[in-house]
Design goal:
By secondary structure, the chain is of the alpha/beta class. The protein has 15 helices and 14 strands. The strands form 4 sheets. Strands 1-9-8-7-6-2-3 form a 7-stranded mixed β-sheet, with helices on both faces. Strand 10 and strand 11 form a beta hairpin.
């Protein structure tokens, strides 16, 4: 029989119950037959003990930041202090209702307002909206602001957004959803090496009167800082466009460099990556959007403003793009970020940036003799290998699968698309030297296996709940119902 995992439905026994409810004090009421289902719901019937044991065992099969090293590039998978989770779970927050009178929710509005101000200080923006629910949502909101700005200035002809060839996939996707045409700009390349920084000559070629703006991550996806960012900003602004900053890679420049000072007009920040919310698994998230002063009227409503000693919910300016989420965004994530910012402080934010940069360069330099390193310069928070050195037989996917046998999550593979066997590594700042050394030793061991017995890697993993899966087949033909597995 094929192995499909230990599903809770397989433990079901008719008539078995895992609960007992107290006698109801509510008068019995018979539901109108029009609203009653004809058949009982097909739910598993299991004891409480079975449920507890099942989901505890399932949790052991998951790999997370609290169970092992997680160097997933461009996602800042770092530890998030439990005190922030504890604070955000307080009834003082969870018992609030969004329709309460404003004078009864001054505490949470103060947190919103001060979070807006701290993010503005960190990024160099004039002000922020905390409404977007995720990074990609923030990208869409920023592009909606860009479009509204140009239409307000009677320049609806500006329908193009420039995106580097090294960009995160959400950038061109968000631009298309916002109604823009995507124009790709090439990276600087020398021989077989492209460092992800923008080729200024090609940028000049694609700039015209139809360009609405450019989307950039700085440092870029290869962990390289855009050394010509001021010139990029000058060229785009002179052409009448705006600069959008994708905050996915903010971690290595906090309180060291600010997007606003580089010339960016719009930025989103991933609170769920950089500021203390467990990231992954589809949520929760928060992608606040900040703007320069001239774009402030276009921010989505509502936003929190301060009038004397009172915090108010502002319906937004006449030029606002409108409401893009329920109420004021994901409150739980914002509270965690607020606690993280206050407990970390200005000086330690800069220390986070420097340590993430130090850790990335330490790992990169330690492994460059075993793995192909296209960009030799010092990186920021992450770097990219192009497969194993002098080994075309073993691929990046094989290395990734073998790492699972050592209780380490693989780095991002096959992204960015600049290299055929990309492996993007981001160690983050709070990993100890001992953890980094263990990762380095493991990667060296895998490289040795690849040279001496490549078949070992091609059959990996060996010690995981399931062996190597047909991931492409699962994505194209998903079986999402229990009955589909029978």
């Amino acid at each position: 029989m094929a192995y499909y995992g230990d599903l809770i439905f397989e433990k079901s026994v008719a008539g078995r119950k895992g609960y007992s409810l107290p006698t109801s004090e509510v008068e019995e009421y018979t539901l109108d037959s029009r609203f009653a289902r004809e058949d009982a719901p097909e739910l598993p019937e299991v004891s409480e003990f079975d449920v507890v044991r099942h989901y505890t065992n399932v949790s052991f099969k998951n790999h997370g930041i609290e169970t092992g090293f997680y160097p997933l590039g461009s996602c800042t998978m770092k530890y998030n202090p439990k005190i922030n989770l504890e604070l955000s779970s307080s009834e003082k927050f969870t018992a609030l209702h969004p329709y309460q009178p404003v004078e009864t929710v001054q505490g949470i509005l103060k947190i919103y307002y001060e979070t807006q101000r701290m993010l503005s200080e960190i990024s160099g923006m004039d002000t922020y909206s905390l409404n977007p629910f995720a990074g990609a949502h923030g990208e869409l909101v920023g592009l909606m602001i860009m479009k509204a700005f140009h239409e307000h200035n009677n320049e609806s002809n500006r329908t193009k957004v420039i995106v580097p060839d090294s960009a995160h996939g959400t950038n061109p996707a968000s631009a298309k959803v916002a109604g823009f045409d995507v124009v790709e700009v090439r990276s600087n390349c020398e021989g077989d090496s492209c460092d992800g920084t923008i080729n200024l000559e090609h940028l000049k070629e694609v700039l015209d009167e139809d360009v609405a703006g450019i989307m950039l991550t700085n440092p870029n996806t290869l962990g390289m800082f855009e050394k010509d960012i001021l010139e990029v900003a000058r060229l785009v602004h002179e052409a009448g466009g705006l600069l959008y900053y994708d905050g996915a890679n903010l971690n290595p420049i906090m309180n060291v460099a600010r997007p606003g000072d580089m010339g960016f007009d719009i930025t989103h920040i991933n609170l769920h990556k950089t500021f203390s919310t467990p990231h992954g698994g589809g949520g929760p998230g928060s992608g606040p959007v900040g703007v320069s002063k001239r774009l402030k009227p276009f921010l989505p409503a509502p936003i929190v403003r301060k009038a004397g000693d009172l915090y108010l919910i502002d319906g937004g300016a006449e030029e606002s793009i409108g409401q893009i989420s329920h109420f004021l965004g994901n409150m739980n994530v914002i509270v965690k970020a607020y606690a993280y910012l206050l407990s970390t402080g200005r000086r330690h934010l800069a220390e986070i940036s420097r340590l993430s940069t130090l850790n990335a360069n330490y790992v990169k330099e330690s492994l460059k003799d075993d793995y192909e390193l296209p960009v030799k310069e010092n990186c920021k928070h992450e770097f990219v290998f192009d497969g194993l050195k002098d080994n075309d037989e073993v691929r990046a996917i094989d290395v990734a699968k073998r790492l699972l046998d050592f209780d380490m999550h693989p780095p991002t593979v096959y992204f960015p698309l600049l290299y055929g066997e990309s492996m993007m590594v981001e160690p983050v700042e709070n990993e100890s030297k001992q953890t980094l050394d263990a990762f380095i030793e493991t990667m060296k061991h895998i490289a040795k296996e690849a040279r001496e017995n490549p078949e070992t890697l091609k059959q990996a993993p060996y010690h995981t709940p399931v062996r190597r899966l047909d991931e492409a087949g699962a994505a194209r033909n998903p079986r999402v119902k229990f009955k589909d597995l029978l």
